[in-house]
């Protein structure tokens, strides 16, 4: 994590009730006829954050981004940037720039002319334009390609041209709509870190719209998960992953195993009576529960241990199962293990040994176990 983002993260202004947000969204709603795209969204974002709006298609994240940019007008509510109400401020007058998913580069212009375009429209002097464009192209490592046209560049290079064009005007806020969607997986992963480093060097607040959970987890100081036009959880990446507030969020962020059942008690502990499993499952001690309550016990695949021998650990939940299949992914292997009945769990094991030294294979009888405190209790 770069220094600017790291400092903002360590300070955690979102945990300080006296901190002033850089962006404040208050009760914003957007309707298109009878369809509500964004409904009563309120959100505070702080200076220097790299903040992600995460959700599936049609959840309202791009509409919210366009309202921040001034391309759409809210049906209700207010948007403040650096303390100024933006409702009556047109898009061209806002301290905001936007990088589009398609990059929207001018095909007939060179790289340097694309980057310089906004400055020329603003009447900046030629000398200053030349210096700022050169500085920005140097930052994105495209200075040697400044005379090329967009069609002569790779996808990653075009993405950096679009980023340079958006940043050269020195906006207070940069909005990025699926900025890495057009790149292949390896280039996307590499560019994520480049994007973080550029944001760190310039200190500009970034808001990124993405449907990619891994991208949001890698980039963000915080994430807002959206669904059906509403924000359903806001938190640091580790919070959203480790402590999702609903089953829908848990399912959307990564992979998770779930057991539905009824809460019972035994020896001052809460247990889950699951209809599909004969053995009650111990619930985490910190969960606030009532006997007879219907809940879901959830456990991430990487929190589960798998062995050929019974661990004989009374502090853990231990179940017997059979390996149905596994997939070798290089750094990890993903196992699907059937336990009682038709219940199938997914387990992720790091590949510490070479593949030839693999100890667990198809059809093996195994023991799977996890500590109750590593699981979650979720409600609908």
Question: How is this structure best described in words?
Answer:
With 380 residues, the protein is of the alpha+beta class. The chain has 2 domains: 3-250, Rossmann fold (3-Layer(aba) Sandwich); 255-378, RNA polymerase II/Efflux pump adaptor protein, barrel-sandwich hybrid domain (OB fold (Dihydrolipoamide Acetyltransferase, E2P), Beta Barrel), CATH 2.40.50.100. Helices cover 24% and strands 32% of the residues. The chain has 9 helices and 20 strands. The strands form 4 sheets. A 6-stranded mixed sheet has the order 6-7-8-3-9-10, sandwiched between helices. The chain has a 5-stranded antiparallel sheet with strand order 13-12-11-14-20, with no helix packed on it. A hairpin with a 2-residue loop joins β4 and β5 (84-85). α3 packs parallel to α5 (155-167) and α4 packs across α5 (155-167). The longest helix has 18 residues, at 185-202. It is globular and about 75 Å long. The two termini are 34 Å apart. The model has no long low-confidence stretch (mean pLDDT 90).
What descriptive keywords fit this protein?
24% helix; 380 residues; OB fold (Dihydrolipoamide Acetyltransferase, E2P); Rossmann fold; 5-stranded antiparallel sheet; 2 domains; 9 helices
């Amino acid at each position: 994590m770069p220094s600017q983002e790291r400092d903002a993260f360590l300070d955690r202004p979102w945990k300080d009730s006296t901190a002033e947000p850089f962006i404040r969204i208050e009760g914003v709603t957007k309707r298109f006829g009878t369809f509500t795209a964004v409904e009563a969204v309120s959100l505070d974002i702080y200076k220097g954050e790299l903040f992600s709006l995460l959700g599936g298609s049609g959840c309202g994240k791009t509409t919210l981004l366009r309202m921040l940019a001034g391309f759409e007008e809210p049906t209700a509510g207010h948007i403040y940037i650096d303390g100024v109400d933006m409702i009556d401020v047109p898009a061209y007058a806002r301290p905001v720039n936007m990088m589009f998913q398609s990059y929207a580069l001018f095909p007939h212009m060179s790289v340097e002319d694309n980057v310089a375009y906004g400055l020329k429209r603003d009447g900046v002097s030629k000398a200053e334009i030349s210096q700022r464009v050169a500085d920005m192209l140097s930052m994105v490592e495209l200075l040697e390609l400044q005379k090329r046209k967009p069609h002569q560049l790779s996808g990653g290079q075009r993405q950096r041209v679009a980023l340079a064009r958006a940043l050269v005007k020195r906006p207070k806020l940069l909005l990025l709509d699926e900025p890495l969607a057009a790149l292949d997986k390896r280039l996307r992963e590499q560019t994520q870190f480049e994007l973080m480093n550029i944001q760190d060097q310039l200190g500009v607040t970034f808001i990124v719209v993405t449907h990619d959970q891994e991208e949001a987890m890698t980039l963000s100081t915080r994430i807002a998960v959206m669904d059906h036009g509403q924000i359903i959880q806001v938190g640091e990446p580790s919070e959203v992953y480790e402590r999702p507030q609903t089953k829908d969020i848990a399912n959307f962020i990564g992979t998770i195993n779930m057991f539905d059942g009824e809460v019972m008690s035994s020896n001052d502990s809460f247990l889950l009576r699951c209809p599909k499993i004969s053995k009650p499952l111990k619930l985490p001690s910190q969960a606030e529960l009532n006997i007879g309550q219907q809940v879901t016990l959830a456990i991430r695949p990487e929190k589960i241990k798998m062995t050929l021998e019974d661990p004989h650990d009374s502090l853990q939940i231990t179940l017997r199962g059979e390996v149905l299949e596994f997939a070798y992914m290089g750094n990890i292997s993903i196992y699907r293990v059937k336990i009682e009945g038709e219940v199938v769990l997914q387990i992720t094991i790091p590949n510490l040994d070479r593949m030839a030294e693999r100890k667990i294979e198809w059809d093996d009888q195994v023991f799977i176990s996890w500590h109750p405190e590593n699981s979650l209790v979720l409600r609908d």
